[in-house]
């Protein structure tokens, strides 16, 4: 499946070279499907090869090495698109071939615990029942959805707010590039997180987002202040990119890694549908700044849920602490 996903980028590049509008659209569809497929498989491999206590380091390295692509990619893609439309697809296809070559060289195969099924595979939808029976998985998935909604509010609606308030149509793009460049700070954030705990880091990220996004909505009469508050909030979204996915990844049972990886990846689609839908309802009765308030309220909800995580989540060993019914112990190698 990983090989098929990576090949989707390559095939999409060849279709884009044909140059007709229909082939360009098909290339975009293939690229989107390839992204989802490789993302699900990547999560499954991470859960199979990376120990619980190393997941934070893994997420940090992933964010750090993706910083260059996220910073340069949007601007370069637009420039290349104006020069020759298939050019961005060719870069994507070439990168995918390199990625696939490294994958085959590493000979990761089906992984250590992820093995070829000897019987009819279970419908992944059936695992939704198992998902809803595990509060820690639900909490981790909600963290991912709310974090992603925060990014939607920042990436999509900040530029619109800037244009509506006469701040120019390029300000949003400039701030996004600066924010993406801040991904290079992820190792520093990891060092800060390691001195505390996963629960403290997740709570800090969501608390800061709640305060800054809500304040940005209140300060809408001063557009520059709103933009500054949202920009500050984006740094805490990066912190959440590093730590907010860990509660889910650390709670998955080894026997359910493949299926739960697919469940976890659905947060992108849910947030991509939920955010525009909620924004549409808000804009019926409130200005665009109301969307920032909604993101702040959602972050406050996530902060409250994060307070019920186990205080030693992510530590190398479990120390005696008082826990509630929800706060189940997390042991290295266990569920």
SSE topology:
Layout: H1 2-18, H2 21-49, H3 55-83, H4 87-106, H5 127-132, H6 135-164, H7 171-181, H8 186-194, H9 198-218, H10 223-243, H11 246-251, H12 257-283, H13 289-306
Helix pairs in contact: 1-2, 1-4, 2-12, 3-7, 3-8, 6-7, 6-10, 6-12, 6-13, 8-10, 9-10, 9-13
Describe the structure.
The chain has 335 residues and is mainly α. It has two domains: 2-54 and 69-106, no CATH class; 124-306, MFS general substrate transporter like domains (Growth Hormone, Chain: A, Up-down Bundle). 73% of the residues lie in helices and 0% in strands. Helix 6 packs antiparallel against helix 10 (223-243). The chain is globular, with a radius of gyration of 21 Å. Residues 317-335 have low confidence and may be disordered.
Total number of helices: 13
Work out the count of structural domains: 2
In total, the number of strands is 0
In the CATH classification, which architecture of the largest domain applies? Up-down Bundle
Task: Summarize the entry for a quick read.
With 335 residues, the protein is mainly α.
Search tags:
Growth Hormone, Chain: A, mainly alpha, 13 helices, 335 residues, disordered C terminus, 0% strand, single chain, 2 domains
């Amino acid at each position: 499946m990983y090989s098929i996903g990576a090949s989707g980028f390559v095939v999409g590049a060849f279709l884009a070279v044909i140059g007709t509008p229909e082939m360009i659209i098909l290339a975009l569809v293939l690229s989107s499907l390839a992204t989802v497929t490789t993302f699900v498989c990547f999560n499954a491999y991470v859960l199979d090869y990376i120990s619980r206590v190393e997941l934070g380091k893994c997420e940090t390295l992933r964010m750090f090495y993706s910083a260059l692509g996220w910073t340069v990619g949007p601007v370069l893609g637009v420039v290349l698109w104006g020069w020759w439309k298939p050019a961005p697809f060719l870069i994507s296809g070439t990168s995918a071939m390199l990625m696939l070559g490294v994958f085959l060289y590493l000979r990761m195969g089906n992984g250590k615990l992820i093995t070829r099924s000897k019987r009819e595979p279970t419908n992944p939808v059936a695992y939704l029942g198992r998902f809803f029976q595990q509060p820690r998985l639900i909490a981790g998935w909600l963290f991912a959805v709310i974090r992603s909604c925060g990014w939607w509010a920042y990436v999509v609606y900040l530029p619109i707010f800037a244009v509506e308030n006469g701040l120019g149509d390029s300000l949003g793009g400039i701030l996004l590039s600066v924010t993406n460049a801040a991904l290079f700070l992820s190792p520093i954030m990891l060092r800060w997180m390691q001195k505390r705990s996963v629960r403290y880091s997740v709570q800090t990220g969501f608390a800061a987002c709640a305060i800054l996004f809500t304040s940005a909505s209140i300060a809408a009469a001063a557009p520059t202040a709103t933009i500054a508050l949202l920009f500050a909030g984006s740094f805490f979204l990066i912190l959440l990119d590093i730590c907010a996915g860990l509660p889910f990844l650390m709670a998955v049972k080894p026997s359910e890694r493949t299926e739960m990886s697919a469940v976890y990846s659905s947060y992108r689609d849910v947030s991509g549908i939920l955010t525009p839908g909620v924004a549409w309802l808000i804009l019926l009765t409130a200005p665009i700044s109301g969307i920032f308030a909604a993101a702040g309220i959602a972050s406050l909800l996530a902060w409250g849920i994060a307070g019920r995580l186990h205080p030693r989540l992510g530590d190398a060993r479990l120390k005696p602490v008082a826990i509630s019914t929800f706060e189940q112990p997390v042991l290295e190698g266990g569920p």
